[in-house]
Design brief:
The chain is α/β, with parallel strands linked by helices and about 400 residues long. The protein contains 13 helices and 10 strands. Helix 7 links the parallel strand 4 and strand 5. It binds (3S,4R)-3-hydroxy-2-oxopiperidin-4-yl beta-D-xylopyranoside (XIL).
Length: about 400
Amino acid sequence: MRNKPLPCGLSRRSLLLTVAASSLVAACGGSGGSSGGGGFSSSSSSSSSSSSSSSLSSSSSSSSSGPVLPDPATAPALKTHFAGNFKVGLVTDEWITGNASISALVIRHASSMTAENVLKADPIGLGGEGVYDFTRADILASFCATHGIALRGTPLVWHATSPAWFFAGDPADASYKATVRARLERYVTDVVTHYKGKIYAWDVVNEVISDDGSQTYRNSQWYQVLGKDFITYAFNAARAADPAAQLFINDYSTEDAGKLARLMSVVDDLIAGGVPIDGVGHQLHVNIGINPAAVEAALVATEARGLINHVTELDVSVYTGGGGQAELSGAPLAAALQTQALTYRALFNLFVAHPSIKVVTMWGTTDAHTWLDTFPVVRNDYPMLFDDSALPKSAFWAVVDPAFVP
Ligand code: XIL
């Protein structure tokens, strides 16, 4: 996949001596930190199956300078560690069935899985109206069934993966809106029905909130054709197809106060209209500058409405400066990884304190399998709990062991 550089060519112990822990703690309390999640076009690629050799082996117990991290063999299974709090989710596509290392990692640590791409309308619905290709998603679903892992579905409706046939026709036609509505309801009904009893929760709509404070709803094609009612149509169809599946509205930057207010106004509108919504999905594509208090505000807002929270796409980027920031290496990368560990600890402490959270899903598995290596720019990122060799990082130990000093 790619060759990730050593943080600085130093031993892990040397790194600890060169980085002041206090500055890391301070960095954790900084404001902002959202990496954002929209604005790209989906490739539905399954190419993330490639593996790379680890160059972060300084984080393993086999470092020549002596073990700093605990023996990986003693790492608790995340799903067991947090069993009393929430499900732990990891994300891959069906390629996992051909990757022994990632399969083992997921089987050991995950009680929930989300498909990274294969449950999206691109690819499932690319064939046209009423034509579905469930091949890849079915492989993932049977992997989950075999290993007793609950499967989370995302997304039924997303502007970035809505094939053009949904909107085919003449908008001036008197029947155009009804036609588009019928296509939407048919798609949602058929997909949810196909996975009835196999998918425990669906992100019914994804990223429907505007990033622009002057409007509430994203100005997607769905919104342009059907107005806000497309959300209601999708939720009603999903509930009818599988009454047992929990239904979510999912979005990024819910830790941004303005975005959260817009999201909650939509949630209030859905509740007032009797729309069958069970919870709010918080993507949480954040970075090491995230302020946990801002995340907590989003959790509390959901709780205030009597809904449950799902953390749906957590990753903690080492980049606070957006796509323009140069790739980190050496001591700055080492410092960022230590801050990352403290950030992950603060976030999981927050999650544990909120019983409204039913699942915490990390968007990927290891640092070798993360969309952030290509988004927002091609650049090595290190946002997961496991390194390129699928070994637990400092961030992992910070999450499971309060006494661990990153
Ligand atoms: C991303 C996948 O990780 C990529 O492989 C794909 O090319 C594009 O989509 N928010 C979402 C996810 O809701 O579906 C996105 O997943 C990441 C941002």
